[in-house]
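Reviewer 2 asked us to include a model.

Predict the structure of this chain.
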Amino acid sequence: MIDRTLTDFFRDLLQNAMRSREVTSSEDIEFYLVSLLERFAHPEPGWNSRPLALEYLESLQRPPPDRFAKLKYVGDTSLFLSGIFMDSLERQLVTTEYYIALGRLAYQQLSVGPAAKRMLFAEMADRFPVFVGVLSEISFEQLFRGAMQTVRIYTRWLRTRAAQDAQWLIRRGIVPVDPGSRLRH
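Predicted model (structure tokens):
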């Protein structure tokens, strides 16, 4: 009999991804990210039925408790989608950059909210692309492995410019180059 909880499973995935990407953070951030993964493991029906931009705009018109909940939803959903589903977003009208910008903005708004969570949300906003990289590491290495892994890691490198992704590509004989950089081989 396996005696592991979903929390244990996601904590292990998160800690392995953070080690792999050489990311450190506080226990509060790790707990927050594990909780986020758990929430999305069993999402509520219709969780992604409305555009996040509308949710964000509506949050600005709400009283503080409702505003906090909507902004948190926008930040968390943006982080989850841009991290876990980065490669599939590239085939959509709304790209990863959109979700990164929107999620970061939502967390920035939360960082000026209740004092108890200011530091957590300030770090989430400041390091949003880093945490996208951590979640995409979980996605690429553990959840959605496949033949397209090299392309996915190159795409992730284009988005995050993570040194670990560049090193992974170089070890496989691929020199990561930004197509817009005008470099010639």
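The chain has a mean pLDDT of 85. The CA atoms of residues 30 and 84 lie 16 Å apart. We have added this to the supplementary material.
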